[in-house]
Amino acid sequence: MGIYRSMRVVGILVLAYSVSMIPPMLVSLWYRDGEARHFAGALLAISVAGLAITAVASLRGSGRSLRRRDGFIVVVFFWIVLSMLGAIPLMLGTHLSFVDALFEAISGFTTTGATVIVGLDDLPPSILYYRQQLQWLGGMGLVVLAIAVLPMLGIGGSQLYRAETPGPGKDEKITPRLVQGARALWLIYVGLTVSCAMAYWLAGMPLFEAVAHSFSTVSTGGFSTHDASLGFYDSAAIELVATLFMLLGGINFGVHYLVLRDHDPRHYFQDTEVRSYFSIILVLLLVIFTSLVLTGVYRSFGHAVMDAGFEVVSIITSTGFGEADFSRWPLFLPVLLIFTSFIGGCGGSTAGGIKVLRIVLLSRQGAREVASLMHPHAIRPIKIGGRVVNNRTIQSVWGFFSVYLFVFVILTLLMMAAGLDQVSAFSAVATSINNLGPGLGEVAYTFSTVSDPVKLLAMIAMLLGRLEIFTLLVLLNPRFWLE
User: Fold this and answer.
1) Could you tell me the CA-to-CA distances from 447 to 116, 239, 457, 477 in Å, in that order?
2) What is the DSSP track for 122-156?
3) Distance between alpha carbon 165 and the CA centroid of its chain, in Å?
4) Which residues lie below 8 Å from residue 84, measured CB to CB, with a gap of 6+?
5) Which entry of 50, 195, 266, 344 is 20 to 30 Å from 442 by CA?
6) Is the distance from CB of 133 to CB of 86 less than 8 angstroms?
7) What pLDDT does 67 receive?
8) Which of these ranges, 54-68, 372-386, 458-472, has the smallest mean pLDDT?
């Protein structure tokens, strides 16, 4: 009965998602670009699919209580089903093949930002808006949004929060009630989006593009309305706005909540993960800026600082906005930036990657192991924010890291078997599993030239990265279905 109970929830969520076809339909009517009928058709198809899933699950299943294991089923099936349904407007509006449309939809929902579309400047406004909306909805997670709604339907939500929310601190709640926490996060998310759109508009962007780019900036997604991304505007003011809001998008939204609740920005510097996040960015900025100046890439000091800062923040937050072509930078800089994407942003943010807190725990555990070689009987607990981290948490982080590396290696080999060279295969997996977007080699700008098997592998990597690997892999364990 568990699968039917889970699929009933998926059906309800799909029905709720069908409403998201209305905004791009209105955009189409406003600009008269002829795409409104495609979004109307998608709304109908998604509504029918949601009703069908709900009806079948309700007939076959019973009970309304959602267990923890059901949460994993809901999240994985919801993301897969939603991506397939989300591809419908892209197939109808851009005449993409099913594989290409599915790639674009998954890239949007997972906030990866990789694309197979060339010629964004010529697309209808409603399609451009729809791509941005995909990333905005995926940024905080449609499932987290549903947590604030499902209790009204008599369905619990804590299991979904545990399965979907990014970051290692999944058992911590920012408010006593989970529903209140989800609503607080979304209010912050909407507030940042509105502020970002206003800032872009004041910096010189047209209003439509300001709203569109605010969606992909706060969600750290990276989709743009232009092939040249933010480089299209050639504006220092727009670059500064993007850097600021990408930086904010990469911070744990729970910390944002504390800052707003207490009206105290010192929370940013009291949090160990956020301090480490800022420190890593500062070190990378100094290294890249110094390298660019010494190699003579930029003659202007200010231009070098701006581009270095923008690219570091864009990559570490897994946004992937383009302003300068970092793949053509000299020395080790392109590879350094790709490796930076493995770090990612803070847990509980919209950023991808392994997450800063895990990196901090891994480094401190490594340092403790080195120290134990010299003093084997000494007891050195690992502390984060003044609290001792229990061994179970440390083991789970090491487990995540080892599985992450194993999956990365396997996917890279499969990419090479599908026809990519070593550099392209490595960066294709890195940019997909870290939800980054731009890569190196053949996938430096777009995935449009690679084969369908490569695109399918990239989609798997995107989903694994967005759901932090275990959420998806746990469903492949036969014991999960036997319990």
Assistant:
1) 5, 25, 12, 31
2) GS-HHHHHHHHHHHHHHHH-HHHHHHTTGGGGT--
3) 11
4) 102, 105
5) 344
6) no
7) 67
8) 54-68
- pLDDT exceeding 90 applies to what percent of the chain? 34
**Residue pair 22/43 in contact by the 8 Å Cβ criterion:** yes
Quick check: 160 pLDDT over 80? no
Q: How many residues does the chain have?
A: 483
pLDDT at residue 193 above 90? yes
Q: Is residue 134 a contact partner of residue 43, using CB atoms and an 8 Å limit? A: no
DSSP category for residue 70: H
**d(C-alpha 104, C-alpha 96), whole Å:** 9
| C-alpha radius of gyration, the chain, whole number | 22
Cα 374-378-384 angle, rounded to 5 deg = 105
Residue 384 pairs in a beta bridge with 387
Predicted confidence band at 214 (pLDDT cuts at 50, 70, 90)?
Answer: very high
* φ, ψ for residue 384, nearest 5 deg: -130, 120
32 versus 480: the higher-pLDDT residue is 32
**H or E stretch including 388?**
strand 387-388
Q: Quickly list DSSP for 309-333.
A: HHHHHHHHTT----SS-GGG-STTH
Tell me how far apart the alpha carbons of residues 65 and 62 are, in angstroms, rounded to a whole number: 9
Q: Is the dihedral of CA 196, 314, 235, 293 positive or negative?
A: positive
Task: Report how far residue 396's alpha carbon sits from residue 146's, in angstroms, rounded to the nearest whole number.
Answer: 27
Residue 402 has which token pair?
A: 């080892």
Which ranges of 207-355 would DSSP assign to H, the alpha helix?
Answer: 207-218, 236-249, 253-262, 267-270, 272-294, 301-316, 333-343
DSSP letters for 1-43: -HHHHHHHHHHHHHHHHHGGGHHHHHHHHHHT-S-HHHHHHHH
Sign of the torsion angle spanned by Cα atoms 436, 439, 444, 446: negative
Ramachandran assignment for 220, one of left (phi > 0), alpha (psi -120 to 50 degrees), beta (any other): left
Give me the pLDDT at residue 158, please: 41
440 three-state secondary structure: coil
Rounded Cα distance, 426 and 412, in Å: 6
- Determine the Cα–Cα distance for residues 328 and 334; give it in Å rounded to an integer: 7
Mean pLDDT of the chain: 83
Which segment of 39-48, 63-72, 272-281, 442-451 scores lowest on mean pLDDT?
63-72
Q: Rounded to an integer, what distance in angstroms lies between the CA atom of residue 458 and that of residue 454? A: 6
b/e per residue, 180-198, with b = 16+ CB within 10 A? ebbbbbbebbeebbebbbe
